[in-house]
Amino acid sequence: MRIVRDYQYVRPEDRGASVAIGNFDGVHLGHQAVIDLARNAAPAAPLGVLTFEPHPREYFAPEAPAFRLMSAEARAARLEKLGVEHLYQLNFNTALASLTPHEFATNVIRDGLGLVHVVVGADFCFGKGRAGTVADLQAFGEEMGFGVTVAELLETGGQEVSSTAIREALSAGRPRDAALQLGHWHRIDGQVIGGEQRGRVLGYPTANMSIDGLHPPKLGVYAVLVEVRDGPHKGSYHGAASIGVRPMFGENTANIETFLFDFTGDLYGATLSVGLVDYLRPEEKFDSLDALIVQMDADCTRAREILSAL
């Protein structure tokens, strides 16, 4: 998959795609439906996605709490799995944010990327001040020679599929409800970093990853499916993970610590993708390390039972 970050510097072979436009945070079922429409709208054209980095919400409110379901790298990996050939991940900056709707259609869609067709959601807005509507986009398409398809909002279980609804499910400790809207387990991807190695002392060595910049799911212990994406231990594993601040050991920044069942080896520096399956319990502060170990034994037994039934 080719990634293009500047619409003003595009190779000829990267032009002429049929694209889905949006932020695609989570790449949920609604996003996948929009991508399928782009694929079918112009079958002879390369399939593309047009998105922005940083997320416009991060750009306009950098001090707001973290809300993203996935990093840009995780999003790109998921889009590539869906068959996206060109990811137009445009740098969202003052110049891009200042384009009027007509300038966006002219400079980005027509002249910059040379798109043949665009697909957007029914609530899509674009251009300075989010002033452009889907009706404007359709009019610009007729004027400038690119096709426009407006995708209806998708529902599942009587609820509109949205990144907001997925965040709410994760905040409530309902990862299976989030998965129903995502079409896949919610995953936290990242590189394994060094920790305090307390888990190794307790008999539960964990792979530690940062969740900085991501929407934090409900803090606590989860049954998880783990993919080791690279390195000598590449493969799929079952496990249990704790997301939180480790109250037994003072004040800490929230992270995710994952114990892989039936695994031995060094994962430092490897990239992991941890899929949340079930919420087991909240974080607790125990009276002793022995009590913590007893609870961890019980957590892993329960997680094994849950994961063996998948």
UniProtKB/TrEMBL annotation:
Keyword terms of this UniProt record: ATP-binding, FAD, Flavoprotein, FMN, Kinase, Multifunctional enzyme, Nucleotide-binding, Nucleotidyltransferase, Transferase
SMART domains according to UniProt: Flavokinase
Catalytic reactions of this protein: FMN + ATP + H(+) = FAD + diphosphate; riboflavin + ATP = FMN + ADP + H(+)
InterPro entries: FAD_synthase, Riboflavin_kinase, Riboflavin_kinase_bac, Riboflavin_kinase_bac/euk, Riboflavin_kinase_dom_sf, Rossmann-like_a/b/a_fold
Origin: domain of life: Bacteria
This protein's pathway: Cofactor biosynthesis; FAD biosynthesis; FAD from FMN: step 1/1; Cofactor biosynthesis; FMN biosynthesis; FMN from riboflavin (ATP route): step 1/1
Protein name (Swiss-Prot/TrEMBL): Riboflavin biosynthesis protein
